[in-house]
Give the backbone structure.
Amino acid sequence: MILLTGGLGYIGSHTAVELIEAGYDVIILDNLSNSKIEVLDSLKQITGKKIPFVKGDCQNEALVEEIFTNNKIDAVVHFAGFKAVGESVKKPIEYYDNNINSTLALLRVMKKFGCKNFVFSSSATVYGRAETMPIYEDFPTSATNPYGRTKLFIEEILKDLYVADNTLNIAILRYFNPIGAHKSGLIGEDPNGIPNNLMPYITKVATGKLEKLSVYGNDYPTRDGTGIRDYIHVCDLAKGHVLALKKLESNSGLVTYNLGTGTGYSVLEIVNAFNQVCGNKVKYEFAPRRPGDIDVCYASPEKAQKELGFKATHSLRDMCETSFNFEQKHTKN
Ligand code: WQD
C-alpha cells in the first residue's frame, strides 16, 4: 500500500488516480489545510474505488504510527507542505516548521516501521536563477525564498539520511510548472483565495470570477518580453510518480529527477493558447515584474526519460482545455 501525504491536493489527487490505475492500493493522509474533502468523492467517481482516508497532520506522529500499524505501507509519496512563495516570505517560521518538521516526523515513523521507500515532492525552485537552459539535475542549487529553502533543506536531509542508511530508496522529484486537470473535470487546481499561479488565475478570468490577468513584466530578455516556464500537464507529472515508485522497487538508492517537458512557453504564449482554445475570454494588462521571479526556467527531461522511461505527452492545447473544463465544471465563485 502507498501512503500519499497531501493526497487530496492538486498533484496528490492526480497521482492517486494514476497509482490506482497502475494497480497500486493507496491511503491518503491530508489535513485539508489547502484541499477539500469533496476531492475524495471525486476520486471515487474517477477510479471506482473508495480510497482509505485519514484526516490529520504528518506532524501528529501517533496518528502516522496508527496508519503504519493498521496498514502495510510499502512506500510513502510526500506531497503535504505549504507551497506559496509569496506567503513563505511573510511567514518563514510557519513554512520551516510545517514543511521540515512534518517530513522529519514522517521519516521517524517510516524508520520505526522499516518502510524504506520515499518519494519527495520537490520543485524546480531549488535551481534558483540557473545560468543556462535547459536545466540539468546536476546544476547548482540555491533558493531565493523560504518556500524554496524548505525544499532544498529537505533534499539535503534526505541525502544525509541515505548516507546513514543506504538500504533506503529515495526519489527526489523536481516539478517544473504543473497545469491542467484530469479529463473528467472532477479534480484540478483549486487554490484557496486569489490564485498566485498563472493558470488558475487565467481560468478564473475566463469564467468571469476575476476581472483581468496582470502579466507580471513584459521587459524580460525573452522572445516576447514575458517570463518563460516549463508547463507540464499534471497527469504527466502524476505518471512520473508511478514510474519513480517502480524505480524504487528496483532498489535504486537515492535518485533525483526533473519532471518537466523540456519546452518553455512565455506568459503571452500561454494566454494566447488559452484564448484560442477557450474563446478569447482572457483579458490582460501588463504590470510590473513580480519580485523574485526569474526570466526563464525549463527542464532537460533527458535523465527521467532515460532512467524512468518518463515522457510528457499532453499538448499545450490539452493543458488549456482541461484547466478550463475543470474551472467551468467544478469551482464555485
Ligand atoms: C508563472 C509565470 C509569472 C501569475 C511557482 C513556484 C514553484 C511552483 C509553481 C509550488 C511567471 C507569471 C503568474 C500572474 C503572471 N510552486 N504570472 N501573472 O512562479 O514559475 O513557480 O509556482 O510548487 O515552486 O516557484 O509559477 O504560475 O506563479 O508563474 O504574469 O497572475 O506566470 O511572472 O512568469 P512560478 P507561476
Observations:
- Residues 14 and 235 are 6 Å apart (CA to CA).
- The radius of gyration is 19 Å.
- The chain is about 40% helix and 15% strand.
